[in-house]
Sequence to fold (387 residues):
Amino acid sequence: MINVLTLNKIAACGTDIFDKAKYNVSDSVSAPDAIMVRSAAMHDMEFSDNLLAIARAGAGVNNIPVDRCAEEGIVVFNTPGANANAVKELVIAGLLMSSRKITDAISWASSLKGNGAEVGKMVEKGKSNFAGPEISGKTLGIIGMGAIGVLVGNAAMSLGMKVIGYDPYLSVKAALSMNPGIKIVSDIKELYAASDYITIHVPYNPETKGTINSETIAMMKDGVRILNFARGELVDSDAIISALESGKVASYIVDFPSDEMIGVKNAICVPHLGASTPESEDNCAVMAANELIDFIENGNIRNSVNFPNAEMNAVGTKIMVLHRNVPAVISEITAVLGNASINIENMMSPSKKNYACTLIDAIGDITDDIVSKLSAVENVIRVRVVK
Ligand code: MLT
Fold:
């Protein structure tokens, strides 16, 4: 049996995909072959030697020690795009909430309870405190035009906004699915200078930490409204708090509340609801399960964050070698096979940053001795004979 550990509640439509004759999917497996996770913190976890893969039902992977996993030969997957619509819908709500003071207005209206017939008059007298601009005709700057950024941009265009996008890694898929009216800029300063609203949709990592800080805020329009439905750490808290206090930033809406942000005037804290829809939980669970199954059964990698995409059909035996992306590894792998009189029918060796995956369609008997020799090649991390 292949043991799959679920670390959070994963939608049944995802766990049901695993063939019960082959897989044991449970929240109490002790040495799992694979893990499905949503937001459980995994940084302090020790992994068993047989752990092959972790699939995050979601986009962000900051709860997973991705680099350590790569060094241990554990492929980490995420589900890009599966919750994009859910996040987009909340971002659109965020645009309106940041503009029309909806949350403060609702709190104030609730405070009128007990005033009997006077409530109507009090409402009409007090409502002017909560006026705010329309979004139509205003400019929305989107940092990160991935699956979510593109959906937000397209929706904002249909609400009458002008949209500027910035993404140095813009994919062909994103470019093709984006409304042609969206202006893509190559210098983020142009976005900062022109936007009335700025929303950020990039992964959180050491390079993106504090993207929005006192220097970048200084480049923005006075009264800009900032939305952060990606990760709290992308925005420097001290900088945003002082910009809210000075009025430079009119409103900050964040889906990742922190102690310091809660209660700050004109900061709206939402309790990480971006992907909290039944549809998105289902989509993420199904995508994560399919990624794991294709990896375990067919040795294909799709949507990994620490190894490259690698998919190949094999006519012989498929060997997967996960290794560091350094010179001479591939030639040593092929030498081991050549010395054992194994013919390579097909081979691919894509890389992603520091790691690579060599897939080999091998003709001949792949013995334990060959596997040991491949595993002993310097910089090889893990060898799997898939089928
Ligand atoms: C994501 O990273 O996919 C979203 O923030 C939602 C989540 O964390 O589950």
Q: What stands out?
A: The mean pLDDT is 97. The chain has three domains: 1-83+277-306, 85-269, 308-378.
